[in-house]
Every structure is written in structure tokens, then in C-alpha cells.
Design goal:
Oligomer: single chain
Distance between the termini: 34 Å
Radius of gyration: 12 Å
Length: about 70
């Protein structure tokens, strides 16, 4: 995989500031946040996929109501 760019951000784990990353991409025209991948592009996987999916759905719901 290629390293993180201004359009692709790799996150090793679910982070507290995921909302900020989401809003930054939304305001700049889009991009991808890939969870379970280190900044150098190496895949590490995720521990709790359900928790991550719920957090992403929560962020999208809040952003869509603004």
C-alpha cells in the first residue's frame, strides 16, 4: 500500500478525533479514512469491528443532521 496522503489517511485503530478527520475530509472535497492500517501502509487489522462500524455510523448521522 502507499503511505497516507492528503486524500487517504490510515489509522491503526479507532481514534478519539475521528470526527475531526471526517469533517476535514468532508470540507476539503472528500477522501478515505482506512482503519486497521499503519501510516506506512502496513495492515494491522482491527480488534472490534462492530464498535468501529457503530462509531462511523454515529459520526455520519450527526454530520447529516447539520
Amino acid at each position: 500500500m502507499t503511505p497516507s496522503t492528503n486524500r487517504i489517511k490510515y489509522k491503526q485503530d479507532l481514534i478519539d478525533d475521528l470526527e475531526q478527520e471526517y469533517v476535514a475530509f468532508f470540507n476539503s472535497g472528500g477522501g478515505d479514512i482506512v482503519i486497521g492500517v499503519c501510516k506506512d501502509g502496513s495492515v494491522v487489522g482491527v480488534q472490534n469491528l462492530d464498535k468501529i462500524q457503530l462509531k462511523i455510523a454515529e459520526i455520519q448521522t450527526v454530520e447529516n443532521t447539520l
